[in-house]
Amino acid sequence: MKIAHRLVTVATFATLFIGAGALAQQPDPPGQVEKGEKPVHEAYLFAHMTHADYGRLYYSVSTDGLHWYRLNEGKRVFPEYQGHPDITRGPDGTYYIAGNTSDSSPDINIWSSQDLIQWTLHSTYRPELKATPGYSQALQRIGAPKLFFDEASKQFLMTWHTPHKEGTKEDPERYWASQRTLYVLSKDLKHFQGPPKRLLDWDMGTIDVFIRKAEGSYWAVIKDERYPTLDWVTGKTIRIARSDNLLGPYKELSDPISPNFREAPMLIPSPNGEVWYLYYEQYPGVSYGLSVADSLSGPWYQISGYTFFSDWDKYAVPEKLRHGAMITISRQEFDKLVDEFGIEDRFSKQ
Fold this sequence. Notes:
Layout: E1 7-8, H1 10-22, E2 43-50, E3 58-62, E4 69-70, E5 86-89, E6 95-99, E7 108-113, E8 120-125, E9 143-150, E10 155-162, H2 173-177, E11 180-186, E12 197-198, E13 206-214, E14 217-224, E15 237-243, E16 262-269, E17 276-282, E18 287-293, E19 301-302, E20 321-329, H3 331-341, E21 343-344
Protein name: Glycosyl hydrolase family 43
Organism: Gilvimarinus algae
Signal peptide: 1-24
């Protein structure tokens, strides 16, 4: 049955959400709040690209971390932004988003916002890639800059991936296998400490790396960027490593959390705060997967979704979305975003 495109108001959003899961016959994912229970995490924002408009900024939102709905009729929410969107919140509540116009651009642009609606250019940073200790062979490439504010040290950590080998016609994958994760530290995202440094000391390709602190440890969520073979079966999967310190060393690298050929992981806590939801894209723009665990050390298992059959879907992401960042927001922030941009149901096409 074809469901007509329509806008839904905040008042009908809850009804739409209940209907989306009511037909499913299998057990629901853990982490949801019980009836009458107040959620620890009230709402979520997914800042993402689309398959048709790669590198531009779009929003979708959720109140349960499982069912996502487009804002702004599927149009850009901030036309000036370019990049692979990643958002963090600073110590004073200001939001920051990092991006770059292309991987070959020498600059990383950082924008700031008080409300996730109006964005202002905060700073532009040009890393001296070849000055990275032990990595003078770095190419002029900056991929997917990501931000993390560390409460313990009161510093921002910005990471990205940079390769050191060009691809060839015979071996295009050597470019991706040569990607290494670099970082810089900053107190204010305007002044940065020294040249970039290597974050991970592994001799393996890594991209899309971001850092989180939880459960008394720091965690590096990565994409293993080697091409999968019988000799490297973990290639193109999402994995996690742990450290006692922000800058590592990161050890205890996990087995794959996702199938092969997944990238752009995003991690959010469940509404009740007791479970982790880890999303990842099956590229290029094919679908989204979701793995869950009650500890970042695992074990993880995959949830059924993105089939667009209500009997099977335990989570729902609008079609043709590409990767970005998921963050928790307050219900008040959710309502303001919906009031500003309007909200669509998940069945509308992009």
